[in-house]
Every structure is written in C-alpha cells, then in structure tokens.
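[agent] plan:
  1. take the single chain provided in the ticket
  2. run structure prediction with default settings
  3. attach structure tokens to the ticket
  4. add a short note for the reviewer (M.T.)
[agent] executing step 1
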Amino acid sequence: MVTSEPATRQIVILEPNGRLTAETVHVFTDVVAKRLRDGRHVLILDLQNVSYLDSAGIGALAHAYTSSRQCGGRVVFVHVFGKNRELLRITRLLTVFEVYDTTTEAQRSFPQATTARM
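[agent] step 2 finished; step 3 output follows
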C-alpha cells in the first residue's frame, strides 16, 4: 500500500511564555512531543514571550528542531529578540535554525500549509 501526504499540511504555532529553563522545559518538551506524536511535524516556535533561556532551554529548542526533522517535518522560529537572539548567535544556532522576524514570513516559508495556534 502506498500512502501520500495531504496536499496541505497544518502548521502549528507554539507560543511558550516566561522562562524556558531547566525548571520549565519539561512542559515545553511534552507539548512538542505530543504535537509530533499527533502527526503535527510542521511547527513555528514564537519566542516573543520567552523572557529568559538557559542551556536547558536552548537544548529543548534544539531537541524540538531535530525531532521534527527526524519525522520529516520542519521547525522555524519567530520573534527572537534581545538576549535570546544574542544567545542563539553566540551558540551559533542562528546558523542552524531558520529564524524569521514575523509569523507571516514564517508561514510563507511553508508552501501549501494551513495554520493552527496552540
């Protein structure tokens, strides 16, 4: 039997709030894992409300990125400002992650996709 992917894929926008640190990453990683298990492999991570990232938070972002790619999906980032952007620059993750200034730009990078905020 041959299966094919639908012509349109649903983009899920995840908007974590507050600190993404060793104390809080389990919530974030659980949400990402659930979306991936549900077949939602196309994610936009909106970081505008993330006030602080530590090494565990960066690891969680990297894990979301690699987990989605392993499922044949894609993760992009939007609204990465200030200290969070500087941290991703210093760790050279800005050269790995796709980062867009706006959600609209990120959505346009996914041809034939619809969007759902979660």
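[agent] step 4 note for reviewer: The mean pLDDT is 87.
[agent] ticket updated
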